[in-house]
Structures are given as structure tokens and as C-alpha cells.
Amino acid sequence: MDLAWVESHREVADRAGLALAPGERLLAGGTWLFSAPQPGVTGLVDLTTTGWSPWEPRPDGGLRLAATCTVAQVRQAPWPASRLARQCADALLMSFKVQAAATVGGNLCLGLPAGAMIALTASLGGEAVVWTPDGAERRTPVAAFVTGAGTVDLRPGEVLRAVDLPGPALRAPTAFGRASLTTYGRSAALVIGRRDPDAVVLTLTASVPRPVVLTLPPAPDEQVVRAAVADAGAAVGWYADVHGAPDWRAAQTARLAVGVCAELAGAAS
Ligand SMILES: Cc1cc2nc3c(=O)[nH]c(=O)nc-3n(C[C@H](O)[C@H](O)[C@H](O)COP(=O)(O)OP(=O)(O)OC[C@H]3O[C@@H](n4cnc5c(N)ncnc54)[C@H](O)[C@@H]3O)c2cc1C
């Protein structure tokens, strides 16, 4: 869609270029920005010219994904095990054209419940690296960065620079479960499990307004899983939109969580 009020487009070459003038908005892949009217936006500040490397290895064997890393590049990153990254990339309801343009940063900063890059990075214990306008940097867990449906922990002038994923989480076994009203529909419930040495870490997205991370004992039994999921839903509320009713989402989330835990237990035995 044409953004009728936009009069300027500038490319970001260095950090100073990230300072926004009134009416300017950061542009990443543009897949959401150009999909809806943006009244009041008169200038676009293009992050894709920053030259940030899409991914970088971390000293602990982890990975840094740049905010500008596209979903297609996420698939190609050097993961110790790439299955989860592929599952999450495919969970985004999008064509290959959108995958090529949509970025990790755009997905996180939109804060949509079905944000699959949110699910991926939250489930791997990712930390959002935020550049602040005074030239400093702050870090916050991805699970806390997304604060609600469409709301994130970004203050005026702040820019999401990257997401750091810790090495041990990248090497941990994972399991993935997703429910949608239609085969290629938007995620209505998405559960990712990670088996740490002393716990199973479940991350719920899509069915809840913001990511919920549950730490359960290793090989939890079904009752424990169902109770933890029910408590989480009671605490944050089950999300409701055209992609699924709250009670259906609650039931799907519990079913997926039980299956994910069973898969992780099976892989361990
Ligand atoms: C066909 C289609 C299907 C879609 N399906 C899904 C889906 O299933 N799930 C889902 O979650 N979304 C979906 N979307 C929405 C959206 O396209 C994606 O969430 C995408 O990941 C957004 O990334 P982008 O790089 O294109 O962001 P943009 O559109 O460029 O930007 C999105 C917002 O984030 C801000 N922003 C971008 N990067 C930064 C940064 N580094 N720091 C601070 N602010 C920033 C922008 O200013 C803008 O407000 C879909 C879109 C389309 C067109």
C-alpha cells in the first residue's frame, strides 16, 4: 500500500542516523509498515542499510541475530540444530516473498501474539539488545520485551539492535507444537519446549497476549503440565481474535504442551 503522507526516505549509515525527527518511523522489511495506513508518518528511516551482519557467533557458542536479519536468513544461520528455526520461520503465515523481507526486529517490535520470531527467541532464552538514545545499550529477556498484544518495552528513541541467544539453549533438545484454525492459517497456539539439564522450559505464544515461559521439572507428568498451563492462562488471559476463541486456544495450548513434554521425555530416554 502507498503511504500517502511519506515525504522522505533516508538510509541509516551509522548510529547517529537512528535519531528520529518528528514524523519519522524506522523501516525494516516493511512487510507490516506497508500493509496498513500509517497516518502521521512522514518519513522512513531505513534500517536495512546499517550493514549489521545478520548473525554473529557468541563466545559461549551462542548466536547474535541482528534486528535486520530476515526470516529467510534466520533459516540459513549456523544453528547447532536448525529444526526449531525452520519450524518457527514456517509458522509465520507468509509467502516466500514476505520471508525474504520480514526481519527479526520487525517481528519482535510489532509484538503480535503470533510473532514466530518472538516464539523462537523467547524459547531459547534470548536477550533483546536495545540501543538507547544516549548512546548506551540495555538488555532485556525477549519474554519480557514483549509486554502485551502489540506492545513492547521500547521507549521513545530506542532501537532494537539484536537478539543474543545463549549457547547452552541452542544445543538443548527442543520440541515444537502449533495449532491453527486452518492448515496455513495464523498460529492460534504455539508451544515450544526446551530440555535443560535440570528442567523442561515451556514457552507459550500465540494463545496468550505475551510470551509465557514456564519452568517445569524434568519429565513432568501430564497433570503437572496441564495445571501449569491453566495457571499461566489464568494469570495473563487467553488471547481472543478471529484466529481462535479463548477456550479453544486454552485447550489447544494444554494439548500441545503435553505433547511437547512427552516428545522431550521420549528423546531423553
Ligand atoms: C502476508 C503476511 C502475513 C503475516 N503473518 C504474520 C504472522 O503470522 N505472525 C506475525 O507476527 N506477523 C505476521 N505478519 C506481520 C509482519 O509482516 C511480520 O510480523 C514481520 O515480521 C514484520 O517485520 P518487518 O521487518 O517487515 O517490519 P516492518 O514492517 O518494517 O516494521 C514493523 C514495525 O516495527 C518497527 N521496527 C522494525 N524494526 C525495528 C527495530 N530494529 N527497532 C525498533 N523498531 C523497529 C517499525 O518501525 C514498525 O513499527 C504478516 C504480514 C504479512 C504481509
What gyration radius follows from the Cα positions, in whole Å? Answer: 19 Å
By CATH, the topology of the largest domain is Uridine Diphospho-n-acetylenolpyruvylglucosamine Reductase, domain 3
Report the biggest beta sheet as strand number plus sense, adding barrel if it closes: 5 strands, antiparallel
Give the SSE string: EEEEEHHHHHEEHEEEHEEEEHH
- If strands are numbered along the chain, what order do they take across the biggest sheet? 4-5-10-6-7
**What is the number of E strands?**
14
What percentage of residues falls in helices of 4 or more residues?
25-40%
Bound molecules: flavin-adenine dinucleotide
Shape: globular
Number of helices: 9
Please identify, by name, the CATH architecture of the largest domain.
2-Layer Sandwich
Structural class: alpha+beta
| Euclidean distance between termini CA atoms | 52 Å
Q: Please, what is the average pLDDT?
A: 95
The percentage of residues in β strands lies in 15-25%
Low-confidence runs: none
What tags apply to this protein structure?
269 residues, five-stranded antiparallel beta sheet, 25% strand, binds flavin-adenine dinucleotide
Commentary on this structure:
There is one protein chain. The chain has 269 residues and is of the alpha+beta class. The protein folds into three domains: 8-46, no CATH class; 55-168, 2-Layer Sandwich (Uridine Diphospho-n-acetylenolpyruvylglucosamine Reductase, domain 3); 173-268, Enolase-like, domain 1. Helices cover 31% and strands 25% of the residues. It has nine helices and 14 strands. The chain has a five-stranded antiparallel β-sheet with strand order 4-5-10-6-7. Bound molecules: flavin-adenine dinucleotide. The site of flavin-adenine dinucleotide (FAD) has 31 residues, from strand 2, helix 3, helix 4 and strand 10.
